[in-house]
Prior knowledge:
By secondary structure, the chain is α+β, with helices and mostly antiparallel strands. Helix content is 14%, strand content 29%.
Amino acid sequence: RPAAAQGPxxxxxxxxxxxxxxxxxxxxxxxxxxxxxxxxxxRPGSGRxxxxxxxxxxxxxxxPEMYDVENRGVRIPAVxxxxxxxxxxxxxxxxLAKVGRNAGVTAVVMMSETCxxxxxxxxxxxxxxxxxxxxxxxxxxxxxRLRQLHVLERMDELLTASMAVFKKPFILxxxxxxxxxxxxxxxxxxxxxxxxxxxxxxxxxxxxxNHLVFLDDRGLAWALGDARAGGAYFVDSDVDDGxxxxxxxxxxxxxxxxxxxxxxxxxxxxxxxxxxELFRWGRNxxxxxxxxxxxxxxxxxxxxxxxxxxxxxxxEVLDVAAGTSHIVCVSLTGDTYAWGQNDQGQCARALGSVPxxxxxxxxxxxxxxxEAVARRVACGRQHTAILTAEGTVYTFGxxxxxxxxxxxxxxxxxxxxxxSWTPLEVAFGDGGPVYIVQVACGDEHTICLTDVGQVFAxxxxxxxxxxxxxxxSQRSAVLVRTLPCVKEVVAGGNWSLFxxxxxxxxxxxxxxxEESSEExxxxxxxxxxxxxxxxxSSSRAR
Length: 542
């Protein structure tokens, strides 16, 4: 039997039958049906591109996550291993384009860097991904095509949170072992063994002031803490009976709907289904307070709402967030809608334009957002942050502690000098373009994550929740230099959580009731999980 075939074809196609050759040695039929890729400077066994041109192109395309600084190479994903490249070249253009759409921007870059035959197709695949999957016309954006695709894919990955703080940090563990730092009161949440139903796998966590809601892979919600706020228990009464759930309990009323995201506020919950419908339950943030006896004769809204799958707001909702008493969502068309309390401008409506400074129905947010394509939203206690498809951030609402990311002396868009009723863009320094892929808000602070893994923070820092070296508040975006290669950020109350490289998790601020002493509450950035916790992958059916 002749020796096995060597090279990039080994293990893909069986060796051909040997035939006679000059000199009496066996020869093999040439595989002409599969063209060979253009030779590249590849390190044996490394699985990386080592050519300087490939590295420069990947960096200029804005994909730093694929660039390995230590080994000076570009990571090649498993689906585009070198043994598969000959087969990729043999695929029809339609099938290759479909493979590229399923694999994403990483595969597109590898296609363009493999050989000239795939470079042209990679450009067309990236354009199709932007238009068909993300609904973005690349000609109308300022970002390079691949950079824009990378930003949008990172936004999709970070749609839901895998961390929260409810009396103590809750960290959703991925595959592998978790190593909790000694002395850190952290609850590790196993996706498969934490819920009462063993068939359910947790995909995301959302926390409010006094309740926590888990979302599983079947689109079901599970509540913990305040029963009425979480939707697991409801009594038709305006008096809070104080029932607290100590174990995750299914929100049975919402079983007919498949939910893809849940957001929690102060005593209320909002959720989005796979069809883009929006549901809310718990404290009714649109209920106006009774001011006179005449209100008793009118049709007054209840103070508490029960989960109702038939009472959803129809629409193509992409993302939703809940503040203390207001709700903000963004639609598939890139529009932003807000309703609820507006006394600090958190719904971007001019002061006195609505009775009681209250919006009872979703209202379109205009101003600078009228020309932007909104994709993500985050809410603090009385302020709102909007993230656009191009990676820019707009803020409005209360700015007392600097949580809007701009100086009090700047244009505030109406109202007093402490608040803003008009959305304005946040500036992130003069060190070059910055593209944000995730925004998280606490009560009076805001955390922003870039596509290169950097973190910017601004707002209140009285409990060191910004992750900076000190307790000062910041009215402009400040880079947190002690946190490189961050993968996810989550914020709320007076705390912030950061999931970094290799699954390490850091906490800043007051992260739980267990830290009772002032010294422990005001500690600076500290590590609570040391290793083995990659962010769990969450499938999103839409």
